[in-house]
Write a sequence for this structure.
């Protein structure tokens, strides 16, 4: 009799727990993707923060401090090393595909739906945001269906047809005009989207829009031709930031549907910094994404039983490793890098164009000192100084011949980035992707399913299971 009573009590407790879970089902989903963010991109960032405090070890950032931690495999259906299209599709749709394909199977014809689609069909408000163009591979994986990631115009049309509530990024990827057809801006407006440019304009009129696209202002987009927001190191007060985008997205999605939302947010330029092997820039992009995670975490703290935050990456970029042979590392020296290498090249080229006669080695050396810390915090070896001097001699020759001056200035920038990695003792395997593990971090009800080692196609269905979406 006692055993029967115990079994009955246990069964009732289980049923009550299941009932309680059903009643408190997750309403708010944040899905962060750090493009190119492998485990070492996180590790170097935390090592850098510790070094700034004069200690060996790590200073944890928020995302890696979340209670659920795992490792994710990233290979695609056709390649051991994925690209962002196949990687993004796996993360968004829960299915492997061919490198280069967006939202279709590896036959390049069969369309597949994403977790954002499943959320929309479940009656949730949906947002997709990024620090790059909103038709780039990773964000496009949530709404696009094209055999080639470079079909930006077609992906823009897919965006307009998606019916999602909120988009944000630098802009559509140019060109967004095709002969004989309306511009993507016009098609978006025809589909009911209000386009607001910059955070101030969002605050003025964005909240009243039926559907919204938040992009960088025209003036701020001039320099980078709408393909990306500036790197975190290079932003000024008028630039749109991922932190602002996240705040705007939460505010807007909550106003659209208090019963729940799904919000995908990409830190897209971690990947770009690592493609360029720009270590200081990489660290700052990880920290920039962590600021956006903090905004989501503030929301989670207000709605802990109804919110999940899931953070992962489509692949690792650069094959970055901490160490070059000697058993030491000097990431603290990266504090002297004030601008990205891309920005350094632009500054030097503009300096030459504006005053070619004043473009001397002393003028260049001053920029390297002010922007990178060369000779002012970072002591260069004789070999490193010689390499910089050789680059300058090539620039002088190009100026004398009035040929390929910009290329030679850019070569100097390339040498600078290699020196920064050398002094910090960071090594890179390539300028491309690797098959290294990427992390997954999570917090919120049910997210323990992401603990341990998983495949990237398990994340979207896992989110759907927790949030009560019907996966397709």
């Amino acid at each position: 009799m006692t055993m029967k009573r115990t079994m009955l009590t246990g069964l009732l407790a289980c049923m009550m727990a299941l009932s309680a879970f059903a009643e408190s089902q997750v309403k708010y989903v944040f899905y962060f993707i750090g493009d190119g963010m492998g485990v070492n991109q996180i590790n170097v960032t935390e090592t850098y923060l510790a070094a700034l405090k004069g200690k060996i070890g790590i200073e944890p950032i928020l995302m890696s401090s979340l209670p659920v931690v795992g490792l994710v495999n990233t290979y695609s259906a056709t390649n051991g090393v994925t690209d962002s299209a196949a990687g993004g599709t796996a993360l968004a749709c829960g299915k492997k595909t061919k490198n280069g394909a967006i939202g279709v199977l590896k036959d390049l014809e069969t369309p597949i739906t994403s977790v954002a689609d499943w959320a929309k069909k479940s009656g949730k408000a949906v947002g997709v945001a990024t620090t790059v163009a909103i038709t780039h591979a990773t964000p496009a994986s949530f709404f696009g269906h094209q055999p080639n990631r470079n079909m930006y115009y077609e992906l823009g049309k897919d965006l307009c047809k998606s019916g999602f509530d909120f988009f944000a990024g630098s802009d559509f990827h140019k060109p967004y005009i095709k002969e004989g057809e309306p511009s993507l801006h016009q098609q978006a407006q025809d589909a009911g989207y209000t386009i607001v440019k910059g955070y101030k304009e969002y605050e003025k009129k964005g909240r009243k829009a039926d559907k919204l696209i938040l992009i960088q202002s025209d003036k701020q987009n001039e320099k980078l031709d709408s393909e990306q927001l500036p790197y975190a190191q290079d932003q000024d007060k008028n630039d749109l930031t991922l932190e602002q985008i996240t705040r705007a997205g939460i505010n807007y999605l909550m106003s659209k549907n208090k019963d729940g939302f799904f919000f995908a947010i990409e830190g897209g330029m971690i990947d770009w910094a690592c493609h360029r092997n720009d270590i200081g820039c990489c660290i700052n992009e990880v920290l920039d994404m962590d600021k956006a995670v903090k905004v989501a975490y503030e929301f989670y703290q207000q709605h802990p039983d109804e919110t999940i935050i899931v953070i992962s990456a489509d692949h690792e970029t650069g094959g970055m490793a901490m160490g070059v042979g000697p058993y030491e590392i000097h990431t603290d020296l990266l504090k002297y890098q004030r601008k990205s290498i891309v920005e350094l090249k632009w500054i030097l080229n503009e300096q030459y164009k504006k005053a070619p006669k004043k473009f001397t080695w002393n003028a260049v050396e001053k920029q390297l000192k002010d922007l990178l810390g060369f000779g002012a915090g970072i002591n260069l070896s004789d070999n490193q100084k010689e390499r910089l001097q050789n680059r300058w001699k090539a620039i002088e020759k190009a100026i004398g011949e009035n040929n390929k001056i910009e290329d030679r200035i850019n070569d100097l920038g390339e040498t600078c980035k290699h020196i920064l990695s050398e002094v910090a003792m960071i090594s890179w395997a390539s300028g491309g992707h690797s098959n290294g593990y990427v992390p997954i971090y999570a917090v919120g009800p049910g997210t323990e399913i992401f603990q341990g080692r998983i495949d990237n196609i398990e994340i979207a269905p896992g989110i759907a299971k927790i949030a009560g979406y019907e996966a397709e």
